[in-house]
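User: quick one, sequence for these tokens?
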């Protein structure tokens, strides 16, 4: 067992995938209640990489997380195929309907989890936490419960026989307003987070990520603490 900087006694290690966004922040807040956190930040040539890294570091500082790993994956940006990594593809400001939006980064969560699980095996962590949301999200295929179930099978097949690592997605079936509420209940520093897909100075307020976030705060009856260039009427 070990003592965290907050004075809480923790008995186990977990890896938390921390993008710097609201969902990953709330996931970190939940994991830090009972575990020693190893924070993983994944960069892949996204438009807002610098701003997301800033939020990652600020959140780690807030929760006194000493074990931090920044994992660059330039190949994702080089291959393109997503509005988040290819500047020739515009970040949409309208709903994509039932189709997978162009902001989907092909198999991003698979790559994040592969690195997170490898680190978890190295440090002896019992679980990997990921702030994926299926119920109230953009409809990315690698945010579905069935995907995480399948990945867990591969994880158990591809690690040492004595290794036992769980993939935990505590927000998976929550709405954005419920995530806001959970974050407030946990005392999460939501003002340190960044969710915008296109801007790094102030959030655009127009991309799908901004709109989902703003709708969540509005439904929760709480003001979003980060600045926006504009907000949907």
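Assistant:
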């Amino acid at each position: 067992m070990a003592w965290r900087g907050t004075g809480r006694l923790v008995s186990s290690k977990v890896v938390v995938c921390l993008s710097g966004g609201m969902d990953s922040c709330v996931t970190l807040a939940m994991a830090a209640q009972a575990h020693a956190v190893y924070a993983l930040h994944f960069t892949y040539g996204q438009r807002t990489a610098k701003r997301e890294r800033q939020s990652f570091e600020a959140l780690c500082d807030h929760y006194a997380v000493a074990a931090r790993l920044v994992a660059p994956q330039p190949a994702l940006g080089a291959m393109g195929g997503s509005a988040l990594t290819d500047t020739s593809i515009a970040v949409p400001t309208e709903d994509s309907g039932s189709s997978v939006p162009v902001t989907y980064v092909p198999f991003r969560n698979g790559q994040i989890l592969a690195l997170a699980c490898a680190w978890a095996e190295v440090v002896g962590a019992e679980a990997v936490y990921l702030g994926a949301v299926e119920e109230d999200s953009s409809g990315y295929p690698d945010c579905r419960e069935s995907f995480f179930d399948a990945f867990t099978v591969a994880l158990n097949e591809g690690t040492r026989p004595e290794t036992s690592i769980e993939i935990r997605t505590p927000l998976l079936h929550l709405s954005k307003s419920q995530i806001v509420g959970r974050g407030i209940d946990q005392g999460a520093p939501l003002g340190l987070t960044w969710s915008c897909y296109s801007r790094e100075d102030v959030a655009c307020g127009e991309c799908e990520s901004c709109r989902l976030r703003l709708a969540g705060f509005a439904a929760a009856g709480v003001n979003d603490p980060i600045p926006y260039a504009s907000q949907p009427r």
